[in-house]
């Protein structure tokens, strides 16, 4: 099994697989995001307490979930990189993780302003999410600062401890942030469905952009290989 996976993870093969998947993924991401956002911003009802400000949820919740999920995926990729010397996947997802975390922080501040009376509070959930952003930025900085990528991989694995802190912070401490989103119990069905579409859209967008970035990284790192040189010559002739 590991031999098969290693064959599929070879740069040339992985580059081809990414290219095959990208068109369908990009189309699916666009459709699901538009469906979730148009439904959520245009047709879902306002909240009985928060009014129309609750619509920020369709941006914030998928980004917040994605910021944590991407870090876990990056940690798995880093572990694979340290053990099996497959070194590109974790770098490919780091930038998208930072973007999702930034979106979660900005939209969370905008959503919390009417409720808290301030754009930012040093709440356990917000602070741990900010730490997550710094982890993403630190990982990318280490990747570009050192040739030995194991250093960044170690930071990724150490930083995993922050993920349960983010998730359970609203239970462990007395925070201003509302409890974790429960799709079945805390959200009305008229809001739940577009939110689910938005979450799927964010996931597909993440996969699409990650595969695009992974292809770019593969070409850059394999630029002196015969297959990459042949591909470059083929593209120039078009």
From TrEMBL:
Domain of life: Bacteria
Location of the protein in the cell: Cell inner membrane; Membrane
Transmembrane segments: 20-39, 59-84, 91-110, 130-146, 153-174, 194-214
MF terms (GO), sorted A to Z: heme binding; heme transmembrane transporter activity; lyase activity
Alphabetically ordered keywords of this record: Cell inner membrane, Cell membrane, Cytochrome c-type biogenesis, Lyase, Membrane, Transmembrane, Transmembrane helix, Transport
Gene Ontology CC annotation, any one: plasma membrane
Predominant location category: membrane
A biological process from GO: cytochrome complex assembly
Presence of keyword Cell inner membrane: yes
Residue ranges annotated for the Cytochrome c assembly protein domain, each copy included: 9-177
Membrane-related topology note: Multi-pass membrane protein
NCBIfam families in UniProt: ccmC
Homology family: Belongs to the CcmC/CycZ/HelC family.
Record's function text: Required for the export of heme to the periplasm for the biogenesis of c-type cytochromes.
Protein name: Heme exporter protein C
């Amino acid at each position: 099994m590991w031999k098969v996976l290693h064959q599929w993870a070879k740069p040339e093969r992985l580059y081809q697989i990414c290219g095959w998947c990208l068109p369908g993924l990009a189309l699916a991401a666009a459709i699901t995001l538009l469906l979730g956002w148009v439904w959520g911003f245009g047709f879902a009802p306002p909240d009985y307490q928060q009014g129309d400000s609750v619509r920020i949820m369709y941006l914030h919740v998928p980004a917040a979930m994605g910021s944590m999920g991407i870090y876990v995926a990056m940690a798995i990729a880093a572990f694979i990189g340290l053990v099996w010397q497959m070194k590109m996947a974790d770098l490919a997802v780091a930038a998208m993780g930072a973007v999702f975390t930034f979106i979660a922080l900005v939209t969370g501040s905008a959503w919390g302003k009417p409720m808290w009376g301030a754009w930012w509070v040093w709440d356990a959930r917000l602070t741990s999410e900010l730490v997550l952003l710094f982890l993403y930025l630190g990982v990318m900085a280490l990747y570009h600062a050192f040739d030995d990528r194991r250093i960044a991989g170690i930071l990724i694995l150490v930083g995993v401890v922050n993920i349960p802190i983010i998730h359970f912070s609203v239970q462990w401490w007395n925070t201003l942030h509302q409890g974790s989103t429960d799709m079945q119990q805390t959200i009305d069905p008229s809001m739940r469905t577009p939110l689910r579409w938005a979450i799927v859209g964010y996931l597909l967008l993440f996969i699409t952009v990650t595969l695009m970035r992974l292809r770019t990284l593969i070409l850059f790192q394999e630029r002196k290989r015969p297959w990459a040189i042949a591909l470059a010559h083929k593209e120039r002739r078009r």
